[in-house]
């Protein structure tokens, strides 16, 4: 994989969004992936698979009903792929909520400041792979109040997760 330098961000190497999604697909093929997280937990569990300053890869286990809440990934671009089960993603754009479902084998990539809420609305646990570039420094948290998205705080990497 070839990293590119993003214009306007000197010295920060980023992978293209298509490279991030291909990386998620590659890691999703690991036959031992499910063994790396607790699939019987009642809340989401996650494990960082690898990280450099320029790329970070996670596997997340989603019990039925688990969700992330509204958030973005600060300056990081990303991609995620549903390995098992199904995930629902809501995105916020132009003052409107947009819904999409990602079934097994389906994924998507996104740019920095992409605000979304991801949940397992299916009837069985789900598993996903998430890839970010540069590595996550934190997440902005939001709440949907009276039809508007309001920032509620910032989680810094290493402090809350």
What is this structure, in a nutshell?
This is Mannose-6-phosphate isomerase, cupin superfamily. InterPro entries: CDO_1, RmlC-like_jellyroll, RmlC_Cupin_sf. This protein is mainly beta and 161 residues long.
Produce the secondary structure layout.
Elements: E1 4-5, E2 13-14, H1 17-28, E3 45-51, E4 56-62, E5 77-84, E6 86-93, E7 96-103, E8 107-110, E9 116-119, E10 126-133, E11 138-145, E12 148-156
Antiparallel strand pairs: 1-2, 3-4, 4-10, 5-8, 5-10, 6-7, 6-9, 11-12
Describe this structure in words.
This is Mannose-6-phosphate isomerase, cupin superfamily. It holds the Pfam family CDO_I. Fe cation binds at residues 71, 73, 116. The chain has 161 residues and is mostly beta strands. The chain has one domain (23-156): Jelly Rolls, CATH 2.60.120. 7% of the residues lie in helices and 47% in strands. It is built from one helix and twelve strands, in the order E-E-H-E-E-E-E-E-E-E-E-E-E. The strands form four sheets. The protein has a five-stranded antiparallel beta sheet, with helices on one face. Strands 7-6-9 form a three-stranded antiparallel beta sheet, with no helix packed on it. Strand 3 (45-51) and strand 4 form a beta hairpin. The two termini are 28 Å apart.
Tally of individual helices: 1
Question: How many distinct beta strands?
Answer: 12
Roughly how many Å apart are the termini? 28 Å
Q: Could you list the spans in which at least 5 consecutive residues all have pLDDT below 50?
A: 1-8
CATH class: Mainly Beta
Portion in helices: under 10%
